[in-house]
Amino acid sequence: MKLFGKNHIIILVITFVILFLMNYIGNDAPDKLQRAIMTASAGVMGLTVGLFILNKGKNDKNPPQDFD
After folding, report:
1. Each residue of 9-59: pLDDT tens digit?
2. Fewer CB atoms inside 10 Å of the end CB: C or N, the chain?
3. Closest Cα partner for 39 from 20, 12, 58, 52?
4. What is this structure's pTM?
5. How far is 38 from 10, CA to CA, in rounded Å?
6. What is the CA radius of gyration of the chain?
């Protein structure tokens, strides 16, 4: 998957919406909006970093030897 391509943006939006709704609906704290936004943003950032690390080694000409 191309980083910040069309598919990546769609997956980020879906991830943000799901995490936001899970945290907003199930929370009774007075600052539930801020917590939901921070949690959803952290999830999107984590997904982006994970995909960046995954794509970094995709076109590697010299992979590590005996990698299991």
Report:
1. 999 999 999 999 999 998 888 999 999 999 999 999 999 998 888 777 666
2. C
3. 20
4. 0.76
5. 19
6. 16
